[in-house]
Specification:
The complex is a heterodimer of chains A (255) and B (96). In chain A, 65% of the residues lie in helices and 0% in strands. Chain B has one domain: Phenylacetic acid degradation B (Ubiquitin-like (UB roll)), CATH 3.10.20. In chain B, strands 2-1-3 form a three-stranded antiparallel β-sheet, with helices on one face. Classes of the chains: A mainly alpha (255), B alpha+beta (96). At the A-B interface, helix 2 and helix 5 of A face helix 1 of B.
């Protein structure tokens, strides 16, 4: 694989993470549990989609097929998406929305932090812009972890159930993609195994404060079966069907 | 949330720039002060309305009522001498 293709693949992975989670959150537009939370979640969705745009724009310039950001987002099939499986998991209830968001925010905060020091200047620039947004997302999701985890019996149970469900998916976050090691060695991509203990420490502290416990389940390492390799759960296809409908039905349609 | 009780109402004040006094921009519902501040950020500062937010639970605001209006404000109407329009401003002051 050529250097350019390796970088393309990695940026696509970052962009897909943000787009897919942004799409998941935007499903809640008009369906939030309270008007204020509805707007808050929609704001986060827009932040994530904005970050995805910057990343797709960069990826597009490296793409051998010369696709632009819209084509990358709306004309690829599920197996071509490089996002981690956590972000494609359905919303189910507000506890799931918050837990998924929190686990991912703690992760993205560290990824962006590391990228700001990375040797790829354009990625570093995108990360510097994005990390300001992620700081707020983390504050939002962490506060809700505490509020609901340490709330009523029912809210605690729902949070723990969501946490148990998502916990196995967090192993993949720190598992490098097939060619990602090359970028890590080159000083472009973060060293995931260095970030993992920091992530686990922060998450564990929050769970303790939120009266939740670390699930007694393995954090799966799925090897080549990960989202980064294009292997997804059944949920991604459904998400794409809705997200890509317009471009599929009316190719090239402009806003 | 699980019991269908409404969250308390909060009033939101935003200062458009640091140092300017906050102006009332609206209200929202939130369970506690922290949430109220975050909700205010999300609901009322999306278009760069300001750089500082105050929230205060609405029940802590003491407001005059319609019934008070006459007693409170009528007497001031015929006391135009309270407006400083009869005085000549020194040039240096320019505008007030």
């Amino acid at each position: 694989m050529k250097d350019q293709a390796i970088l393309f693949d990695y940026i696509l992975h970052l962009a897909d993470n943000q787009l897919i989670l942004g799409q998941r959150l935007s499903e809640l537009c008009g369906h939030g549990p309270e008007l204020e939370q509805d707007i808050a979640i929609t704001n986060i969705a827009l932040d994530l989609i904005g970050q995805a745009q910057l990343l797709y724009d960069y990826a597009g310039q490296l793409d051998e097929l010369g696709r632009d950001q819209d084509q990358l987002a709306f004309l690829r099939d599920a197996h071509e998406f490089r996002n981690v499986q956590l972000v494609e998991q359905p919303n189910r209830d507000f506890a799931h929305v918050i837990v998924r968001q929190y686990l991912f925010d703690e992760y993205m905060f560290r990824i962006y932090q590391a990228l700001t020091d990375g040797l790829d200047e354009r990625l570093a620039q995108i990360a510097r812009k994005a990390i300001i947004e992620v700081k707020y997302h983390l504050r939002f999701s962490r506060n809700w972890m505490l509020r609901l985890g340490d709330g009523t019996d029912i809210s605690n149970q729902k949070m723990q159930a969501a946490l148990d469900r998502f916990w196995p998916f967090t192993g993949e976050l720190f598992q490098p993609g097939i060619t990602e090691d090359i970028l890590t060695k080159a000083g472009v991509a973060p060293e995931l195994k260095d970030l993992e203990p920091q992530w686990l420490e922060a998450v564990t502290a929050t769970l303790k404060e939120a009266n939740l416990h670390v699930p007694d389940r393995p954090r799966q390492r799925s090897g080549t079966g990960s989202g980064k390799a294009g292997i997804h759960t059944e949920h991604l296809g459904h998400l794409l069907t809705e997200m890509q409908f317009l471009q599929r039905a009316y190719p090239g349609l402009k806003w | 949330m699980s019991n269908n009780k409404e969250w308390p109402l909060w009033e939101v004040f935003i200062a458009s720039k640091r140092g300017l006094h906050p102006k009332h921009v609206g209200s929202l519902h939130a369970a506690d002060a922290q949430m109220a501040l975050e909700n205010a950020r999300d609901v009322y500062s999306r278009r760069m309305e300001g750089e500082s937010i105050w929230v205060v639970e609405a029940k802590h605001i003491v407001a005059s009522t319609d019934e008070d209006t006459d007693a409170f404000f009528e007497p001031a109407k015929n006391k135009i001498y309270r407006h400083p329009t009869f005085y000549k401003l020194p040039k240096e002051v320019n505008k007030m």
